Each structure stands twice: as structure tokens, then as C-alpha cells.
Amino acid sequence: MTLLLDVVALFLLGNLLLALVRIWRGPDPADRMLASQLFGTTGVALLLVLAEAQGMPSLRDVALILALLSVLAIVAFVTRVVGIDRTEKDTSPDQDTRAHD
Amino acid sequence: MIEPAMLVLQIILMVTGCLFFGVGTLGLFRFSDTLCRIHALTKIDNLGLGFIVFALLPLAPSLLTGLKVVLIWLVALAASATSAHLVARSVRSGQTADIPEEHRND
Known about the structure:
The complex is a heterodimer. Chain A has helices at 2-25, 29-54, 58-82, 84-91, 95-100. In chain A, helix 2 packs antiparallel against helix 3. Chain A is flat. Chain A is an all-alpha fold. Chain A is built from five helices and no strands. Chain A has one domain (2-100). The termini of chain A are far apart. By secondary structure, chain B is mostly helical. Chain B has one domain. Chain B has helices spanning 4-30, 34-56, 63-93. In chain B, helix 1 (4-30) runs antiparallel to helix 2 and helix 2 (34-56) runs antiparallel to helix 3 (63-93). Chains A and B meet through helix 1, helix 2, helix 3 and helix 4 of A and helix 1, helix 2 and helix 3 of B.
């Protein structure tokens, strides 16, 4: 069973490396953020598998923290870099266009 | 300790989860559009992580630990739904400096 868990962990690690390539080449900043979100999810799965394979229960806590922090990265990107609330304030003073978003 | 049927079920679930991870990463590379990539990515978050979590459940040493793993999956679900909506809104608003007018997904 430990062999299977190790193989799964290796596969997830390979996935993480592929996501790095996506971050490197991504045409839009949104694509890079999506790849970093994949980083978060794959990291959670990897930590959960490693917690079973190596018998370290504290890795589950690390996985929980990683799942919580990855959404904060996305929120920081959307509000700071893209600025969706800034655009609503600047470009659409009337209420009708705002209702569509 | 683990019955063979449970072992087979675990192997099937883990292979399915890895399959979803691989296909989702492939989709993140092959899809042409940011919104399509969001689709592939949320499939990983929901199904890939879910299958791996359910494959790991029989290995959990206690009931509370298993419950905690399921809760981590639920947190990841909420995080992926929230961030997918936020990224999709940011793509639709097209306010990113690098997106030209014809590439906005309105």
C-alpha cells in the first residue's frame, strides 16, 4: 500500500512541475493564477497522500492551511492586480451595467 | 489487515483520482481559453481531490481523522468555487492590462 501511495505522490509531484511550466508560459496573468491554484490543489492532495504514506498526521494540518491560503492568493490577485471593484467604480457609474456583472 | 476488496477499491479510486489530475493538467495546457481552463481546473479540484480523499479514507487511523480529511476536501471545494468565480469575473471585466479587446470573453 505504501508503494501505491508513493507512486501517487510521485505522479502528483510531476503534475506540480507541469503547472510550473504553465506559470512560466501563461499568456495572461489569469492563466498564471489558475496554474497557481492548481498548485494549491495538487499540493493539498500531495500532502494528504504523504500524511498517510509517511505516518505524519501534522501534514493534514499543512494541507488545510494550504487550501485556505490558495484562495487568499486568488482574492489578492483579483482585487489588487485586476481590480474588479475599481473598474465598477470608475467605468460604470450607472446601475444597469453593474447589474450584469 | 485490509481486506482485498477494500484494497482493490482503494486502488481503483486512486487511479481515477490520478487520471483526473492528469487530464485536468492536460486541459490546462491544451484549452485555448481562460474560461475553458477554469473548467478543467475545477474538475481537478472537485473530482481529482475527491477521489484521492475517498481512497485515503479507509487508511485513516480514527474516525475523527477521516472526518478531518473530508472537511479539508470541502474547504478545497469552497475555495475552488470562489476563486473560479473571481477569476472568471476578472476575465469578463477584461480589465487586465495584457488582454487586448478582441480576446476578452464578453
